[in-house]
Specification:
EC 6.3.1.14; eight-stranded mixed beta sheet; alpha/beta; 30 strands; 26% strand; single chain; six-stranded parallel beta sheet; elongated; DPH6/MJ0570
Length: 724
């Protein structure tokens, strides 16, 4: 991609540009924002005096690139972490600056910034990029600062300190020193006082005098003035004011950047951007205007679990209906969920997670176009929900071409991590879906592929290599919430391509065992998480493996939940009529993981062996009506037993799915009828179990599922329950 780099004069923005080149991008322009004179803090004024202006301008000459500059007219008006478009805010000056860059150089498609740890800075750059259709590149984001500092020095960043303001840094000793000279001292100060070695906490600021990007010349500082702003005996604050400098031209200029026709045409020019900002709300760029009334002829089904925290599913169930296409079906399904949310006095802001199932992954772009017309950042002002998208054999079982399940909460108290910048940290989420959403003590993570974060390409090496990198990416996201997939996992869902060979399935399971299961630390969560493999016809980007962890993030001080029973709520009761037949198979068919009596994850497997023991017509095909009823009763019994044994109510269910393999030629409506009848029978012993409303479960057709990658259950039940 062709990139415009936001530059401040410091080491970070320069090194961020170098990283852009590392990953195959071309920096073709520089952009710089200048504060108004009356808004400049005395400590930062060195860069905005006459000499400071000339130094920034000299970067364009050193690199042979055009420089676009704008003096800030706005102020900080939106003080929130997440930026909302606000007239008169200084972020709108960045928008005006980059708008002009894009107008003059239309080929630019990305913006580079030197953000390392500041969410405030990153989110504002991402907001502007999103509005302009640009990609944010933040290759220093969340990187280890010690390693960053060492790499900057090793790769030739020559930068001096122009401000010090931290314990252990003295103006008289450390101002004007090069990073290489200060490295050992900074590392010692980090060990002694915990300062950020890259100065991310404002401990120091730098001015870059030379680096490999300066292909034409380096900056030589001839004279400067040191000003002591605060003579505090503990942490003195001092600044260095450049007073004179010159450029020392290089005899053998390199040609690493700015060699394209665009930059040759306007290289080294300085463009002052003074246009008045015309404020428009460009965040809502709906590409569709969904017409709900146009889909009243579609036979839609809705499901709802739980009470305060629950899943709502919607699908099309009409085997005789010819689908009008993915776009039409997805609009119908999302419109129905949209109406359901409104009927309950809620909106998309209440949605924590979205499972998007489509019939053909080749139409993912079209599905995303429909998706973003419903779920926008403006509607989801607390953060867009996390999402997982896979292809399922929906048409094969008469469920149309789109199926959506959302996790919804009545309370608006979620914490969302949405990093849209491409970085070395973890795969970016460019668009209205986030990496992870924390609600209460449960972290719901978006599906993670084996993507190389800085390039956003699938890693080579096949499904096991993808799994290894997906684990690494998931751990990076978990760490952002101060937890780990190795010590906090409640449930671990592994999506696999149905195209995997038998050998590849075995290798995937062995890799998960060696790289994940054997490394688990269960001291916080008590036992191993439940692990489920689900096979799908296709995954995003042609991936072979995708993982979706659900993690426990304790909110109390000691991280230990307390075992408690929901008071005033009638507990489930397994049917006595089924107990004699099904109780003996409980241990062999169920995988259960509970945390402190408040969270329960469970799997119930109906294997061929289990089916042969519970079906009255053993040896015959399992899709007969009687066999389906028997298997449905078995699942219903085990779910009730799991809930009652662990002191959970029916209302505590937040997710209940029945995956069934299409290899067994079972129609969705036939299986739905079997489960409806089974739960109706169970309700006779459970007055708190309501079966006269929408089903509280979702029936999901898959290519295969099981607690092992090498088994293919007839039916697998996936349960998650939680108490407030």
């Amino acid at each position: 991609m062709e990139v415009v780099a936001l530059v401040s004069g410091g080491k970070d923005s320069c090194f961020a540009m170098m990283r852009c080149l590392d990953y195959g991008h071309k920096v073709v322009a520089l952009a710089n924002l200048i504060p108004l004179d009356d808004a400049v803090d005395e400590l930062d004024s060195y860069m905005y005096q006459t000499v400071g202006h000339q130094i920034v301008v000299s970067y364009a000459k050193c690199m042979g690139l055009p420089l676009f500059r704008r003096r800030i007219r706005g102020s900080t008006r939106d003080h929130g972490l997440k930026y909302n478009v606000t007239a008169g805010d200084e972020v709108e000056d960045m928008f005006a600056l980059l708008s002009e860059v894009k107008r003059q150089i239309p080929s630019i498609s990305a913006v580079s910034s030197g953000a390392i740890a500041s969410d405030y800075q990153r989110l504002r750059v991402e907001s502007v990029c999103s509005r302009l259709g640009l990609v944010s590149l933040a290759y220093l984001w969340k990187q280890d600062q010690t390693l960053l500092l060492e790499e900057m020095i090793r790769r030739g960043i020559v930068a001096i300190t122009v401000k010090v303001a931290a314990l252990g840094l003295k103006p008289s000793s450390h101002l004007g020193k090069e990073l290489a000279e200060l490295k050992c001292h900074l590392l010692r100060m980090n060990e002694s006082y915990g300062i950020n070695v890259c100065g991310e906490g404002g401990e120091y600021e730098t001015l870059t005098l030379d680096c490999p990007l300066f292909r034409n010349a380096r900056i030589v500082l001839d004279n400067y003035e040191v000003i002591l702003h605060s003579a505090d005996s503990i942490a003195s604050v001092g600044i260095l004011h450049p007073q004179a400098f010159h450029l020392e031209h290089k005899t053998h200029p390199s040609g690493t950047i700015g060699d394209g026709p665009v930059t040759q045409e306007i290289s080294s020019c300085v463009h002052e951007v003074d246009e008045v900002i015309t404020h428009t709300d460009v965040e809502e760029k709906q590409t569709l205007s969904p017409a709900v009334d146009a889909h009243t002829n579609v036979d839609l089904c809705i499901s709802k679990t739980g009470k305060n925290l629950r899943s709502i599913g919607c699908w099309i169930q009409n085997r005789s209906r010819a689908s009008e296409g993915l776009k039409s079906d997805l609009i119908a399904v999302l419109s129905r969920i949209d109406n359901q949310l409104k009927e309950e006095g809620l909106g998309w802001v209440n949605v924590l997670y979205v499972h998007l199932y489509i019939s053909n992954m080749k139409e993912f772009g079209l599905a995303n176009e429909v998706y973003v017309s419903f779920i926008t950042e403006k509607k989801c002002y607390l953060g867009v929900p996390s999402r997982s998208t896979i292809e399922l054999p929906l048409v094969q079982v008469g469920l149309g071409k789109a199926y959506v399940e959302v996790l919804v909460s009545n309370e608006l108290k979620k914490r969302v991590l949405h990093v849209q910048s491409i970085s070395c940290w973890a795969p970016s989420c460019i668009g209205p879906y986030s990496q992870a959403t924390l609600y209460g003590e449960i972290l719901y993570m978006a599906g993670q592929l084996g993507l190389d974060p800085p390039t956003m390409k699938l890693c080579p090496g096949g499904p096991t290599a993808e799994l290894e990198l997906a684990l690494q990416n998931s751990e990076a996201v978990a760490n952002a919430f101060s937890c780990s997939i190795y010590s906090s996992a409640i449930h671990f869902l592994v999506y696999c391509s149905a195209q995997l060979t038998s050998d590849e399935k075995e290798e995937v399971e062995q890799t998960l065992q060696s790289s994940y299961i054997t490394r688990l630390d269960c001291s916080k969560i008590g036992s191993y998480p439940t692990v489920l493999y689900v096979f799908a016809p296709d995954l995003p980007k042609g991936a072979r493996v995708e993982i979706k962890p659900i993690l426990y993030v304790p909110t109390d001080d000691d991280g230990v939940a307390t075992n408690e029973t929901e008071t005033g709520i009638m507990q489930p009761a397994p049917s006595q009529a089924w107990s004699a037949q099904y109780s003996g198979l409980h241990d062999s068919s169920c995988q259960i993981h509970t945390i402190g009596g408040r969270i329960c994850s469970a799997l119930v497997s109906v294997t061929s062996d289990i089916a042969s023991k519970i079906c009255s017509t053993a040896g015959q095909l399992y899709h007969t009506e009687e066999n389906l009823k028997a298997m449905a009763r078995f699942c219903a019994f085990q779910i009730a037993k799991i809930l009652v044994d662990n002191n959970f109510s029916w209302g505590s269910i937040t997710m209940l799915r029945f995956y069934y393999s299409v290899d067994h030629s079972v129609a969705a409506d036939a299986l739905s009828c079997a489960f409806s009848e089974a739960f109706s029978e169970l309700a006779e012993d459970n007055s708190s179990l309501r079966t006269d409303d929408a089903p509280f479960y979702n029936i999901v057709p898959v290519s295969g599922s099981g607690c092992s990658a090498c088994t293919n259950n007839i039916i697998t039940c996936e349960l998650l329950a939680s108490k407030p």
